[in-house]
Write a structure and sequence with these properties.
heterodimer, A: about 180 residues, two-stranded antiparallel ribbon, 6 helices, 5 strands, elongated, B: about 375 residues, mainly beta, 5-stranded antiparallel sheet, about 45% strand
C-alpha cells in the first residue's frame, strides 16, 4: 500500500473515489469529498469535509498527538504548526546557542571584556575552561533531553521558545561586544 | 488557508478506473500535504523567535554600551592622544610606562597603546566593592586586583595582561591579596597578602613573583604597606608609631639583597605625603603638619640610594607634587605648570602639557606623559 507523508495513505484497489489508510481516508460524499479519520487525541472515528488545509492539520495533529476535530483543534493545529518539529529546532538552537555562549564568554573573559556574572559559572570558570565547558554543556544537554521527553506538555513549547529567545539575545549581545572590541 | 481546490477529483470523468481515481487522490494528497506546506508555519515561528532574540540582544547592547560610556574615543593630537567618551571619562587614576597608558574610567580599566592609539578594555566595572580596580603598570605587564567571584569581596585575585603577547591571565598564588594596589617593575609583581594565621594583627606579607619565570619569593612581613617598585628595587613602609612622621621606609635591592631602612620625615612639623621610586632614587614629598600650622609648605626630597646623597628638589608654599617615572621627578610650582627634573640632578624643565592644563600633575614615563583635562586624558611624547 503506497503511503503519502506517513500518516495518510491512498488505497490502490478500493471503490471509486475512495482513499483509505490505517488512520484516515479520503472518500466521496454527496456534498463533495470527506476526510474520515481517527482523532489522535480522542481515539474516535470522525468525518470532516476535505480541504487541503485539513489534510495538513490532520498530519500536524497526528505528529503531535493532538486533537484535529474541527471545533476542538488547538491553536497550533489550526495553523498547521508542527509543535514537535518546532520544539526540535528550538532545542537544537538552544543547545548551539549555549555552546556559542560558552565560547563567547570564555573569549570575552580572556579578553577582559566581561566578567562572569553567574556565581556558579564563575566558580567553574576559575576551575578552568574545560570544567566550565563540561558543566555548562552537560547541564543544558540534560535540560534539552528533559524538555524533549516532556514535549507533550503544553508549557514546554512556550518555555523553550522563551529560553531560546533569551539565549539568542545573550549570544547576540556577546557577539556584538566582542566585534566592537 | 483552505483556498486550494479539490475539484480535480470531483471533476473526474465517470467511468475512470478505481486505480486512476485512487492515483489522482494520491497526487492530490501529496500536493496538499507536501513537506514545504507542512514546514512553513513551524519555520516561520522559528525564524521569528531567532530574529526577536537577536534584536533584543542588539538593543540591550546598544543600551548597555550607552550607560557604561564606552567605547572611548581616541583622537590623535599634535603631541600624542586625547581620550574621551560621550559621557565624559570618570577616570580616577592614570599611569604610563613604556609605550602604554592605563587609566581607570569609572571602574572600567582601559589600556592605550601610545604608538598605535589602540585601546583595550582590561576590566569591566564590577558590581562588587572592588569595582575600582587597583592597577599597576610596567613596560611589559599590567596587573590589577579584582573580585575572584562576582559580588564576593572576600575573595580577591590579581589579573594581569601581557603587553607583548597580548594575553590575559590570573596571577598564580595571589589569592590572598588584600585588595591594595600591587606594584610592578618589569616582570616583577609585588602584592600584599594577608598572613592567614594572624590576619587580625594586621601583619601582612609582601609577596614577589617573576611573571616571566613564575618564580615566587617573599619580600617582607610585618605591619607594613607595599609602596613602589622600580628596576630591582622594591619599597614598603612600616608604621613605627602613631603618626606619618614615625613611619619607616624600607627599600630592598632584589639583585644584591641590600636593604635600606630610612626615616624620611626628619624635620619637626612635617609629615610624609607620597613616596616613589624612580631609577635608583627614592623621591618623596613632605608637607607641613596641618595640626601644627595652617600655613602650607611642601618640600620634595630625593635620595640617591647608591651614593646616599640626599637633596631637596623643590620647596615652597606653592609647590605641589608628586609624580615620578623614567628617572624623573615631577612637581609644579607657583605657576601650576608641571616641571620635571632628572633624579641625578640637572635643570628643571617644563613639561609639554599644552595651554588647557588645569593643574593636575601629569604622570610620566621615560617616553611619554599623560594628564587629565576636563574629563579627558591627554598624552604627549617626550623627547629625550
Amino acid at each position: 500500500m503506497p503511503r503519502t507523508n506517513g500518516a495518510v495513505a491512498v488505497g490502490d484497489c478500493l471503490p471509486v473515489g475512495v482513499a483509505a489508510a490505517d488512520v484516515a481516508r479520503l472518500q466521496r460524499a454527496p456534498g463533495g469529498l470527506e476526510y474520515a479519520y481517527r482523532c489522535p487525541l480522542h481515539d474516535a472515528d470522525r468525518v470532516a469535509p476535505y480541504t487541503p488545509a485539513f489534510a495538513r492539520q490532520f498530519l500536524t495533529a497526528s505528529a503531535d498527538g493532538l486533537c484535529c476535530c474541527v471545533d476542538e483543534m488547538p491553536w497550533s493545529v489550526r495553523h498547521g504548526l508542527a509543535r514537535s518539529r518546532l520544539l526540535a529546532w528550538l532545542l537544537i538552537t538552544l543547545w548551539l546557542a549555549n555552546l556559542a555562549d560558552l565560547l563567547l564568554t570564555l573569549r570575552a573573559v580572556a579578553a577582559g571584556r566581561a566578567t562572569e556574572a553567574n556565581g556558579v559559572m564563575s566558580y567553574f570558570l576559575h576551575a578552568g575552561s574545560l570544567a566550565a565547558g563540561v558543566f555548562k554543556v552537560g547541564l543544558v544537554s540534560a535540560a534539552v533531553v528533559l524538555l524533549w521527553i516532556l514535549r507533550r506538555r503544553s508549557v514546554v513549547l512556550p518555555a523553550t521558545a522563551a529560553l531560546t529567545l533569551a539565549l539568542v539575545a545573550l549570544v547576540a549581545y556577546e557577539a556584538l561586544a566582542l566585534l566592537t572590541a | 488557508m483552505d483556498s486550494d481546490s479539490t475539484d480535480p477529483l470531483r471533476a473526474a470523468p465517470p467511468g475512470r478506473t478505481d486505480r486512476v481515481a485512487a492515483g489522482e487522490l494520491s497526487a492530490l494528497l501529496r500536493r496538499d500535504t507536501s513537506g514545504w506546506r507542512l514546514l512553513r508555519p513551524a519555520l516561520l515561528a522559528f525564524l521569528i523567535i531567532i530574529a526577536v532574540g537577536a534584536a533584543f540582544g542588539a538593543l540591550a547592547y546598544a543600551v548597555a554600551g550607552g550607560y557604561q560610556g564606552w567605547p572611548t574615543t581616541v583622537v590623535r593630537t599634535a603631541a600624542g592622544w586625547r581620550i574621551s567618551s560621550a559621557d565624559g571619562l570618570q577616570q580616577d587614576s592614570e599611569m604610563v610606562a613604556g609605550s602604554s597608558m592605563v587609566w581607570n574610567n569609572g571602574g572600567c580599566l582601559e589600556l592605550l597603546d601610545l604608538g598605535s592609539g589602540k585601546t583595550t578594555v582590561l576590566q569591566l566595572p564590577s558590581s562588587g566593592e572592588q569595582g575600582s580596580a587597583a592597577a599597576c603598570l610596567s613596560e611589559r605587564y599590567v596587573a590589577w586586583t579584582t573580585d575572584r567571584y562576582p559580588n564576593d569581596i572576600d575573595h580577591l585575585e590579581i589579573r594581569a595582561y601581557d603587553l607583548v603577547r597580548h594575553r590575559f591571565f590570573t596571577v598564580p598564588g595571589a589569592f590572598d591579596c588584600d585588595g591594595s594596589t600591587p606594584a610592578l617593575s618589569g616582570s616583577l609583581l609585588f602584592w600584599e597578602g594577608d598572613r592567614p594565621q594572624d590576619a587580625d594583627a594586621k601583619h601582612v606579607v609582601i609577596h614577589g613573583l617573576d611573571l616571566a619565570s613564575g618564580r615566587g619569593f617573599p619580600v617582607a612581613t610585618g605591619s607594613i604597606r607595599l609602596g613602589d617598585a622600580c628596576g630591582d628595587l622594591v619599597m614598603w613602609t612600616q608604621d613605627d608609631g602613631n603618626s606619618a612622621r614615625d613611619q619607616l621606609t624600607w627599600v630592598k635591592d632584589l639583585s644584591s639583597s641590600r636593604l635600606w631602612r630610612l626615616r624620611l620625615c626628619t624635620g619637626k612639623g612635617y609629615e610624609t605625603d607620597g613616596c616613589l621610586l624612580t631609577g635608583r632614587a627614592l623621591v618623596w614629598q613632605l608637607d607641613r603638619d596641618s595640626t601644627v600650622t595652617s600655613a602650607s609648605f611642601t618640600r620634595i626630597e630625593e635620595l640617591d640610594l647608591d651614593s646616599g646623597v640626599r637633596r631637596v628638589v623643590a620647596q615652597g608654599n606653592k609647590v605641589w607634587g608628586l609624580s615620578a617615572g623614567g628617572g624623573q621627578v615631577v612637581w609644579s610650582g607657583p605657576s601650576r605648570a608641571p616641571l620635571a627634573e632628572n633624579v641625578v640632578g640637572g635643570p628643571a624643565v617644563p613639561l609639554p602639557v599644552g595651554r588647557n592644563f588645569n593643574g593636575d600633575l601629569p604622570v610620566i614615563s621615560d617616553s611619554a606623559i599623560a594628564w587629565i583635562v576636563d574629563n579627558t586624558v591627554e598624552t604627549a611624547r617626550l623627547s629625550r
